[in-house]
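Hi again,

Forgot to attach this to my earlier email, sorry! This is the prediction with fe (ii) ion bound. I've pasted everything inline since the attachment limit keeps bouncing my files.
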Amino acid sequence: MDRETRVFAESHFRGLRGRLPGGVCPTPDRVDFIETPDSFSYTDFFKGYLLPNVPCVFSSAFTEGWGSRRHWVTPSGKPDFDYLLQNYGDVVVPVANCGVQEYNSNPKEHMHLRDYISYWKDFIQGDYSSPRGCLYLKDWHLCRDFSAEGLFTLPVYFSSDWLNEYWDALDVDDYRFIYMGPTGTWSPFHADIFRSFSWSVNICGRKKWLFFPPGQEEALRDCHGSLPFDVTAPAFLDSRLCPVPKHCSPPLEVTQEAGEMVFVPSGWHHQVHNLEDTISINHNWVNGCNLANMWHFLQQELCAVQREVIMKSCSGINFEEFYHFLKVIAEKRLLLAKEIDPGEVECSERSGLGPQQTIFDICRIAEVLASVVVNPDFQRVDTSMFSPRPEDLLQQLEEVVAATESL
Ligand SMILES: O=C(O)CCC(=O)C(=O)O
Ligand SMILES: [Fe+2]
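Structure tokens for the complex follow:
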């Protein structure tokens, strides 16, 4: 990141004055398609899509050299079942049943990849139907459970990824997933966990995405306040005609072809349909641009009674863990900040994201942490054993913000 971009970003956040990113930009009427990697920099993505929080699609040229695109796909563009069986047949993977609704998602079971592939082959043979229903392999942590060496290269646009940086530092989990399933598999209407961003690359196959900008989902709630499960279901479309037609613009629709990469912004609800037998790599990620959205979301998740318990069950994270997440990233950035040479703050975009990105990250964490420490529910958490104490960490961050302002 260069200085001009950081100054631009900071004035963007100042301009929001505490409102959430993404809520202020006019909704685009179409999704941009980025054709060539050579003429599209990290800064172009940062200013054009990440900061304004709008979706875009990158052409297959961006994933040209990926090993998964060579190894997992037959010459005719279909999933290479033999290769997958040979290399991953024994792995246990999570599988969702697309035909069954359980609250607002699908029930999941676990099975060996070899059994899933055998189901998939039968499904194709049975003309894309099966007495077992329509099964979708989702959220397989291939990178966590195996080495993903050579399968893909993290695009620079998505490289400021604190969620995976945090989990990698703890060495326990990640938010890097593989999805695979036949034509007809689909993901119900949702926004991503913690209001994270996601990116998704089709290794083979095609997906149809329906995107709803943040806030539009309010118009889709039923009379009980529940969000829809399937925005394409005839029953849902009929029910919305009465009693009161609510204002909701049609979703932005994207068809993602093989090799193409979709950027899903923070807090955008979406529904996704596989139009062919499809394999994709999907990551969820959080950084300085959507950290405030995550914090806002976690506070909203707090219900009136049994706050901590409920919050943990809704989103899988409580205030203490959120502080821990901020602390791990903050301490790494404070170390990097110590190494900033005031004479050499500008860096080439090739070597990581550079000192200006470090300063930006520290500013964003300081802003959100300042809100965390004054939150009445956080104040009820016993922080006496935290090291460092939240107030001390905030002070350290604010000192660096002040010291680096002019860089
Ligand atoms: O590909 C899918 O089925 C769902 C992907 C998705 O929801 C995401 O990447 O955020
Ligand atoms: Fe999603």
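Residues 291-404 form one domain. The pocket of 2-oxoglutaric acid (ligand 1) is lined by residues 179, 187, 192, 198, 200, 207, 264, 270, 272, 280, 282 (CB under 6 Å).

That should be everything now.

G.
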